[in-house]
Specification:
Blueprint: E1 22-29, H1 33-39, E2 50-58, E3 61-69, H2 75-84, E4 89-94, E5 97-103, E6 109-111, E7 132-138, E8 141-146, E9 152-153
Antiparallel strand pairs: 1-3, 1-4, 2-3, 4-5, 6-7, 7-8, 8-9
C-alpha cells in the first residue's frame, strides 16, 4: 500500500478497520450477511462505511460480520436479524470501544415481519390483517408458526421477510 494513504492501512492480521462509532453485528450464521444488509436496507441512501466479512474463520467454524458506522439498530431490525442469525451479537461502539454487547433475543412473536407461506392464509388476503407468527426453537432450528393458519416456516426464513 502507498504509505501516504494511511486511512486504508490495517494492522497485520486485521481484515477490516475498527469503527469509531456505530454497530458491529458479529457471529452471524455464515452466508447470512447479505440477508442482514437487506434487512437493514444497506447500502441504500446510507452514506457511512459498511464493512462485511463473509465466511470469516472463528473458533466455532465460519461466521459473517457486519460493521456499520454511525448507526444503531431498531428493535424491528433486531427481531428480523434474530430469525436468520439467532446466535448473533450486537456490539455498540463508541470512541473505538465496545460500549454494550448483547446477543440478539429471539422474540416470542413477530408481527408484520414475515409473510405466511400459505397463499390461502387470511394474512395474505385483501383483509386489513397483519401477519403474526409465534417464534420457537426446536433442535437448534428457528420455527415460525402462523397464528391464523398454523402453517410453519422453518427454512429460508430470509426469503419470507416482508420488505418495507
Amino acid at each position: 500500500m502507498n504509505s501516504e494513504n494511511t486511512d486504508f492501512e490495517l494492522e497485520p492480521g486485521l481484515r477490516v478497520r475498527p469503527i469509531e462509532n456505530g454497530t458491529v453485528i458479529d457471529h452471524i450464521n455464515a452466508g447470512q450477511a447479505l440477508n442482514v444488509l437487506h434487512i437493514l436496507k444497506l447500502p441504500g441512501q446510507f452514506e457511512s462505511v459498511v464493512s462485511v466479512l463473509i465466511n470469516s474463520p472463528s473458533k466455532y467454524g465460519k461466521k459473517d460480520v457486519v460493521k456499520i458506522e454511525n448507526r444503531e439498530l431498531k428493535v424491528k431490525e433486531l427481531d428480523k436479524i434474530s430469525l436468520i442469525a439467532p446466535s448473533a451479537t450486537i456490539n455498540i461502539i463508541r470512541d473505538f470501544k465496545v460500549l454494550k454487547k448483547n446477543r440478539v433475543k429471539i422474540p416470542e412473536y413477530v408481527e408484520g415481519v414475515v409473510q405466511c407461506v400459505n397463499p390461502n392464509c387470511i394474512s395474505n388476503s385483501s383483509e386489513p390483517i397483519t401477519s403474526k407468527f409465534r417464534v420457537y426453537e426446536e433442535d437448534n432450528i428457528i420455527n415460525l408458526r402462523c397464528i391464523y393458519c398454523e402453517r410453519i416456516i422453518s427454512e429460508d426464513i430470509a426469503d419470507h421477510l416482508l420488505r418495507e
